Amino acid sequence: MRTWCAWMATFILFISTAAAQVQVDLKKVCHVEDGRLIFTLDLRWSAPQRTEVARLFGLDSALVSDAYALKPVITSNGKVWKTLKIDLHRFELSMEAGKDESREETTEKIFLLDDQWIKRSSIAERESVSYGVNRFTRNILVQSGGRLRFFLPGQKNAKKVFISGSFNAWSTLQTPMQPCDSGWTVSMNLKPGKYSYKFIIDGKWTNDSYNKLRENDTYHGYNNIFFCYNYKFVLSGVPDAHKVLVTGSFNQWNESELRMIRFQGNWVLPLYLREGTHAYKFIVDGTWMTDPANKVTRPDGKGNRNSFMGIGDTLFFTLKGYSNAKKVIVSGNFNAWNQEELAMDKTSDGWQLPYVLAPGNYEYKFIVDGKWITDPSNTYKTGSGNSYLSVKPNYWFRLDQYPDAGKVIVTGSFNNWSTDGSRMEFHQGSWWFPVFLAPGKHTYKFIVDGKWMVDPANNLWENNEYGTNNSVLWIEP
Questions:
Q1: In a domain, 118, yes or no
Q2: Using an 8 Å Cβ cutoff, are 382 and 415 in contact?
Q3: Rounded CA gap, 80 and 75, in Å?
Q4: Which residues form the domain of 210?
Q5: Phi-psi region of 116 (alpha: psi -120 to 50; beta: other; left: phi over 0)
Q6: What mean pLDDT do residues 422-441 have?
Q7: Local structure of residue 98 (DSSP, 8 states)
Q8: In terms of domains, do 221 and 236 share one?
């Protein structure tokens, strides 16, 4: 049975200390089995790791302390817990559900331990892939915009059916399905993206036999996957074609994966595409072609051209001046530093290019008649000398001291602890750096003229392997 606690944490927790380097895989910490709430703990975890796990799952600190002392029976807040040694390093801490508690009620109470963590993991899953196409063997999902109608055929003798997944934080009671003539159905409003799910039929977790998309649930089973669509490729004018595919940057130009469907004289393929700009082409009976209905084409740097489309808000790369230049290109890590693809348009006072980028952090430069330059209007630079752009930043690092410092850098888990990558800028008495961070936990430090320090304005910190501590930041979904 796929259980609640496994959904409460889908990330690996890294806390480095001088005493231990053991990773905490939160997916394997907690599960429910036969009415028992079970935590699998490790004697090798450091004190900060134990504290962090206890905080995430709402465990009392005294309970955790007694558990690590391997007391066989522990009473905490009126509940009786038991410990059981599994191997040299691991042991189980378990609690029996009370006689007056049903399995559904027990799992709902587990859910309440850390619903924010579930929300973070749900958002991370929804945006975790570049694209997706559903693989149902029969029509059990109907989509109109963000409104989806799920259908479970059969199960006429079932008394209660629920659908549980990342879209409802794996609640066992929140989304009941309604009986109909030939099965069970439910409608939901969802944002575009990837979702995992299972059915709960009279208390039994059940996979969707009509869905070919699945992934391991880390408990010797699997979850089904579906995508909420937000785009449809359409190709007209080739009614006699036998086989048409679409391929692009979103699927690494796979030439055989995304086969289109003949529909009312056209070839179509609805799918999910992540926010951003995507290059693409059609393959018609083995012949590659751009989209005749899309005027936006750009060179690929190899003598060919690709069609381009974007999902999301449009930003404008702008370069003032250089009116005598013959050709200006913008290039960055968002297009693998292609030197031919993104030619800018000449304007009355310079050059401009509209472009769609997903929320994130990017590096870029302009190429003016073959010469690489940084963006003169952007004060943020990376250690490698590129201009830095944060699209829809959700956090600003700030350091209020050291106005006379020559160079201030913020570094941490979000940029692999780069020592020169994120250079802060001094504005109105403080050092600033904008960044888009994924939901969850981040550790960081400042480097002021070569001297490392924790954030003096942040009281949340943890020890590191050097004994010098790291500041801790949590980004809410």
A1: no
A2: no
A3: 5
A4: 123-228
A5: alpha
A6: 90
A7: P
A8: no
